[in-house]
Amino acid sequence: MRINNESSTGVQNTLSMLSSSRSKSLERLATALRINRASDDAAGLGVSESLRSQIRDNQMSQRNANDGLGMLQIADSGTQQITDSLQRMKELALQSANGTYNATDRSAMQKEYDALRGSIGQIAQSSTYNGQSLLTGGSSGVSFQVSGDASGAGTINFQSPVDLSADLGLGDISSQGNASSAMSSIDDAMKNVLGMRSSFGAAMNRLDSTVSQLGNSISNITDAESRIRDTDYAAETTKNTRDMILQKSSMAMAAQANQMSSGVLGLLQ
Predict the structure, then answer these.
(1) Domain contains 49
(2) Based on the domain organization, do 158 and 246 belong to the same domain?
(3) Residues with Cβ < 8 Å from 67, sequence gap 6 or more?
(4) What is the pLDDT of residues 106-136, one digit of tens each?
C-alpha cells in the first residue's frame, strides 16, 4: 500500500518559501539595503551603480575645486602684497618728485624704494602651491578638473601672464625727473597686477559656484540612489512579521498533516 501525504508536502513547500523570504528580509534589515546582489533587482542594481559612480565623480570634482581655490587664494594673497608694495613705491616716487627734497633725502627714499622692488620679486618667487610657481608667468597656465567630463567643458583655467619676479622696469627715484618716469612705470605695473587679480577673482568665483553646485548634485543623486538601493524599513519589517506569523502557522499545520498519516497505522494493528 502506498501512502502519499499531499497535505504535508504542500505545507513543507510553503515553509521553504517562507523561510527563504524571511532570510531575505532579515538580510535587508541587517544591511539596510534592498538590493544586496544582482538577483534582488538586476535593473535597479544597474541604475544604482551608475548613480554611485556619479556621486564619487562629483565628490572628487568637489575636492579638485576646493584644491583649486586653495591655490588661487595663495596667488591672490601674493598679488595683494605686491599691490601694497607698488602703492608704497608710488608714494615714494611722488614724494621724490617734489622739489622740496634734496639729494640726501632722495637717497634715503631710494633705499626704501629698492627694498620694496626686491620684495616684489621675492613675493613672486615664494608664491607657490605644491612646488608650482603661481606668479612667475607661463604660457600654459593651470587647469582644474571639476567634472567627470573629460572634455574642456569639465575644466576651469587660470593663467599668470606676467612674470612678477622679473624686472618690471620700475626705474629709480634718485632725481625729480627719474621719479616722474618711475610713477608712470609703477602705474603700468599696477595695471598688470590688478588685471591678474581680476583673473584670479573670476576663477575663484567660478570654483566657488562649482563647489556649491556639486554639493547640491551630490545630495540629490544620493537621495535618488537611496530610493532605489536602500531598504524601506517600515515595509520590510511588516513583511518579515507577516512571514514569521505564516511560518509559525505552517509549522503547526505541518504537525497536523503528519498526524493524519500516523492514523493509517491504526488500521494495520
Answers:
(1) no
(2) no
(3) 144
(4) 999 999 999 999 999 999 999 999 888 888 8
